[in-house]
C-alpha cells in the first residue's frame, strides 16, 4: 500500500520559501528546483534495499553495504519534470531515464499525451515519476497508467508541491504508489492551480512567461 510522505527538513523548507517568491529569478528558480529534487531524492531512497559486500581497503577488508533489488529509473513528466532530473542522476548515476509528455487541455483541464519514450527494461525497475507540481493529479495518474501498461510494478511519485485534490486522485487510481512531497498546500483555485503554490513551474524553470 502506497503512502504519502511530506518532508519536514529545514533545508528543503528554506529553499522552498525562496522558490515560491514571485521575485525569484529564472536562474535561481531553476537551481532551487534541482537542489530540492536532490534533497528529496536522498530522503525518498532512504529505504532502498541493500546487500552486504566485502571491499578491500588499503589497510584491510571491510564489510560494506551496496544497493540491492530493483534497478532504478527516473521518468520526468514533460516539461517541468526535466528540472528535477539532473540532481537525481547525480545521486543515482546508473538510473535510466524515460520521458512522458503530457499537457493539460485548457478547457477540460484533462491531460493529453503527446510523447512517451521509456527504457526497454522499464518494467524491471523501481520508477520515480517526477514533476514539480501535483495539482489535479490528472497528469500523474496518466503517467502511472502508461508505466503500468509497460509492466512497471514499483512506482513512486516525487513532487515539490502537492495539494489534497492531487494526492487523493493518485491514491484513488493507484493506491500502491508512494507519494513524496516537499510541501502539501491548501487547495486548487478555479483555474486548477495550486494555492498558494508557486505559479507555473514550467514557465518559471524555462523563462517562458
Give the topology.
Layout: E1 4-6, H1 10-20, H2 26-44, E2 50-56, E3 61-67, E4 71-78, H3 85-91, E5 96-97, E6 99-104, E7 111-117, E8 125-130, E9 133-134, H4 138-149, E10 154-162, H5 164-173, E11 178-184, E12 187-188, E13 194-195, H6 201-206
Parallel strand pairs: 1-11, 4-5, 4-6, 4-8, 8-10, 9-10, 10-11
Antiparallel strand pairs: 2-3, 6-7, 12-13
Helix pairs in contact: 1-2, 2-3
Largest sheet: 9 strands, mixed
The fraction of residues assigned to DSSP E strands is: 25-35%
> If helices are DSSP runs of H or I spanning 4 or more residues, what is the number of helices?
6
The computed structural class is: alpha/beta
Query: Radius of gyration, Cα only, in angstroms?
Result: 18 Å
Provide the number of structural domains: 1
Overall 3D geometry? globular
Please provide the ordered H/E string of secondary-structure elements.
EHHEEEHEEEEEHEHEEEH
CATH architecture: 3-Layer(aba) Sandwich
